[in-house]
Design brief:
The complex is a heterodimer of chains A (about 350) and B (about 270). By secondary structure, chain A is α/β, with parallel strands linked by helices. Chain A has 13 helices and 9 strands. In chain A, strands 4, 5, 6, 7, 8 and 9 form a 6-stranded mixed beta sheet that branches. In chain A, helix 7 crosses helix 8. Chain B has about 270 residues and is mainly α. Chain B contains 13 helices and no strands. Classes of the chains: A alpha/beta (about 350), B mainly alpha (about 270). The interface of A and B includes residues 169, 221, 225, 341 and 348 of A.
């Protein structure tokens, strides 16, 4: 027993010592000082050359950390252990973080390059007047299909093409209530933020008719499955679509004409920020058209920077799959925050759709 | 002094049970009485008895039953064979070995094996049967689940078979019982405890499976586990998620009680 207690005491002392040493090292290296900037972004979501360039231009040392889900990112910011200066959440997460007071307001006067952002992507429902967030990348939800495996006359310019009986058991859907309910509503001509019970029930009934065509409803695996030609078509986010097409160039991506969802990943300053000056410098740096173009070319997502588009190679900027014409973007909608109760209801309807048997 | 000392040694266990057994159950129960907005309500329990959740409960039980049944059918002969082998410990180790590999990794491997262009379909094509859809079917779901749970079924049965006194079997045979009668009247009743323990170890976790339902069954199989996961991670309707969890806890207690009671009667 005595030995045990001694062992415990020794471990306790050792770990306290380690903690002290870590905090000493951090402060001596200036990790919490003004000369470093901690950026919290999705994995593989920035051109590393840009980080080097930024460090050279400003003399600020960048600590770059990555997350793989909005929820994980929010939890870390909430705990406040790390001093994140800039983070890049998706729009619904921004709305949540705003409500939980996890964000600092952004002073537009300190971002002269904000003028390069296309006005279509500013002042949206999740962040009026962009008080808290600045667009980083955007994308859509659409249909990816393999022309070799689908009937010739199906070009998926309409959501209704998914219901074609020839696609029996050949369709993959992404496992998201908003996405699936959203295209159900869109295919009927309703808004994907519709709250009317009869419209939602109508969408559910229509989706249940889709069941014979649905092979599976999956998460991230959808990228691998579609690239391996496990199914002929799928409903995916444009970001995933560009990754799938990198793997397998036979596939093609379409945004149906009835409209769809448009999503954003925006830069924000979390409450944990210590180096505000550096955060503004970084955001302004990323808003510079040349940098934005370089980043968009590297990552492969759509940039909201209208002055960056002419700087992109022709084959990217003229690609209507990722830079759709304005008449189509007019029909794209951002997901409104439906409130917990409505979101729960959407989810229950989605569960009901999933349980519907062939 | 001696008594005080004994109590002192109990402290870690009591703390453990309070913190990691009692507190989570109490919290789950507490949470189940609140709706999404944090207001007190009994509505979650009413909602549980709507067709959506009842259907889900039924299908959860049906699949858990299938998984347990097939695990038992495979595990019992396997355990029996194990007791007859020379290098028991080695074979046992080989059976336990897959449990050292991460569950998710094993499930992902099946995505490749069962895929349209996977190993199984390629062999089927070579045999002239032609490619079948294996992934995202009931078959693949039950198969992968059985594969994952089988060590938990084999171990208790193997142990009870090991404890079985062989002279009882010899006696039965000497007294003229056929091999089948010996098994039915002597071996099986004496290993029933192992079978029960194995069934509990498989049925209860099988009720709340969730990752496999998405990865291998492509959400064509919806269990209560899937619903709990969704309510906690997506809708943030912790109340409803907790209600389903409370229901599962009650069912599990009932199952354990039912399995234990027969022992008393005997």
């Amino acid at each position: 027993m005595k030995g045990l207690i001694q062992a415990f005491a020794a471990i306790l002392v050792a770990s306290l010592g380690c903690m002290y040493l870590a905090s000493y090292l951090n402060s001596s290296q200036g990790y919490s000082g003004s000369n470093t900037l901690t950026i919290y972004n999705w994995g593989d979501y920035i051109d590393p050359d840009l980080l080097t360039k930024f460090q050279k231009e400003t003399g600020i040392t960048v600590i770059y950390q990555t997350f793989d889900s909005n929820e994980a990112m929010m939890t870390k910011v909430q705990q406040g252990g790390t001093t994140f200066d800039v983070a890049v959440p998706s729009e619904y997460a921004i709305d949540k973080m705003k409500q939980e007071n996890l964000l600092l307001p952004i002073d537009h006067d300190r971002l002269p390059n904000l003028k390069h952002i296309d006005s279509r992507f500013l002042n949206l429902s999740f962040d009026k007047d962009n008080h808290y967030s600045i667009p980083y990348f955007w994308g859509t939800v659409g249909i990816i299909y393999n022309p070799e495996l689908t009937p010739k006359d199906l070009v998926f310019d309409s959501w209704d093409d998914l219901w074609d009986p020839r696609l029996k058991n050949n369709l993959l859907l992404v496992d998201g209530a908003r996405e699936v309910m959203g295209f159900g509503l869109n295919s009927l001509g309703y808004s994907l933020n519709d709250r009317k019970e009869e419209h939602l029930q109508e969408a559910l009934r229509k989706l249940q008719k889709l069941t014979p065509n649905v092979k599976a409803i999956v998460g991230d695996e959808i990228k691998m499955l579609l690239a391996n030609e496990e199914a002929a078509a799928g409903v995916v986010w444009s970001g995933d679509a560009s990754e799938i097409m990198d793997e397998n160039d036979k596939l093609d991506y379409v945004i149906p004409k009835e409209g769809s969802n448009v999503w954003f990943d925006n830069m924000v300053i979390p409450r944990t920020a210590r180096n505000l000056d550096g955060a503004y410098k970084f955001m302004n740096f990323m808003l510079d058209p040349a940098n934005a173009a370089q980043n968009a070319e590297y990552v492969g997502y759509s940039t909201p920077n209208k002055d960056a588009i002419p700087l992109l190679p022709e084959e990217i900027s003229s690609d209507e799959r990722f830079y759709p014409p304005e008449e189509l973007t007019g029909r794209l909608e951002v997901y409104d925050n439906l409130g917990k109760r409505m979101l729960s209801h959407y989810n229950e309807l989605f569960l009901e759709f999933k349980m519907h048997r062939k | 002094m001696a008594v005080r000392n004994r109590n002192f040694f109990l402290v870690p266990y009591v703390l453990w049970i309070l913190l990691f057994v009692a507190a989570p159950i109490a919290l789950t129960l507490y949470k189940s009485f609140f709706d999404v907005d944090g207001a007190f309500t009994l509505d979650n329990y009413v909602r549980f008895f709507t067709p959506v959740y009842l259907k889900m409960t039924l299908s959860s039980f049906w699949y858990a039953f299938l998984i347990t049944l097939f695990s038992l059918l495979i595990a019992y002969p396997a355990a029996w064979l194990l007791t007859r082998t020379k290098h028991k410990q080695l074979w046992l180790l080989l059976i336990i070995l897959p449990t050292w590999i991460n569950l998710l990794l094993k499930v992902y491997a099946f995505l490749g094996i069962f895929g349209t262009y996977g190993a199984v379909n390629r062999s089927l094509e070579w045999l002239g049967i032609g490619a079948q859809q294996i992934l995202f079917t009931d078959f693949s779901f039950v198969f992968v689940s059985v594969y994952i749970f089988i060590p938990f079924m084999i171990l208790p049965i193997f142990n009870s078979l090991e404890e079985l006194n062989p002279s009882l079997v010899f006696a039965a045979r000497d007294l003229g019982a056929s091999p089948w009668t010996t098994f039915r009247r002597v071996v099986f009743p004496l290993t029933l405890d192992g079978v029960k323990a194995g069934c509990q170890a498989v049925f209860i976790p099988a009720l709340s499976l969730f990752m496999i339902t998405r990865l291998v069954a492509g959400n064509r199989v919806i269990t209560l586990g899937t619903a709990i996961e969704q309510h906690f991670l997506v809708t943030q309707d912790w109340g409803m998620g907790s209600t389903i969890a409370v229901f599962l806890i009650i069912v599990m207690v009932l199952i354990m009680f039912a399995a234990g009671k027969r022992e008393v009667r005997r």
